[in-house]
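Sample pair:
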Amino acid sequence: MKAAQFETPGGPEVLSYKEVRDPEAGPSEVVLRVSLCGVNRIDVWARSGRYKTSLPHIPGTDISGEVVSSGPGVKGTMPGDRVLVYPVLSDGSCVYCRQGRLNLCLSRGFVGVATDGGYAELVKVPAANLIPMGDLDPETAACLPVNFGTAWNGLVGKAGVSRGDTVLVWGAAGGLGHAAVQVAKHLGATVIAVVGDERKSGFVKSLGADSVVVKSVDLAEKVRALTAGLGVSVVFDHVGGDTWSTSLDCLAKGGRMVSLGLTSGAKSEVDVRRVYQDELKLMGVYGQSREDLRAVMELAVSGRLKPAVYRNLPLSSAREAHEIVESREVQGKVLLSP
């Protein structure tokens, strides 16, 4: 089969489109013919060496496809079944798995990081990670797990966003950000979207953002001006260390911040006094549960969530896809088609 693979960590140039051996399904595993694979920061971090992988390695976490073959012990799955891959790998037996919180598993991993992923014509995954695609088209399906599922986990499962909330979304034009804007609007919130430059304003407004602000040193002042001086009730911060302090400055008393990314680094200074005096809530978000993914799949089928595809590139252009994501020019989701 053809795949986009790297043999050593590095920049986008280490990705090579080549012929590799077809995967074979082992016990409780299936082989899928990949329809589409979404491109995410997690793929970039795997390629760059930030996440440890086996070498050579095929990245790719967001996968839609069709079942080709099944290994011993697989039941209820037939060749030709259209499926979406739940990307979290778990042991199914630890204390968190028994609670249904697979994304907190003590042996947690991700398809495309701990195993070869979907930058290939074929991919091998655990049968337990398959979710029937139903009426979803493969393109929409491949946009959902890492972006929309994680946004749902943060805004619904952690922050409990509802009508009357005002939500600030950092990086609102990117894959995760554009998902968060849509989820927050679906929940009835007012959305203030943060973008890197004015060129992205029209795009995030088309998603439903009520206000758009360009990232700047006086961002907190701009946000408070938009909220009668109060600040927002929820901040969705997937940027990391560089924005944490500003995120807290944007929060109203009693506000909630969900943190789910390290694009700008892992270190930040926090005014602890303000956290306790204003009763702020800081919550981490890591991936998504199967229930989160099923929820956004249902909403996508009904048209209430609509992923925006920025580029759909051939698999041979995986290097270009990574360059687009790292340049931060993306508006929506980048996909790869084998």
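The CA atoms of residues 87 and 111 lie 5 Å apart.
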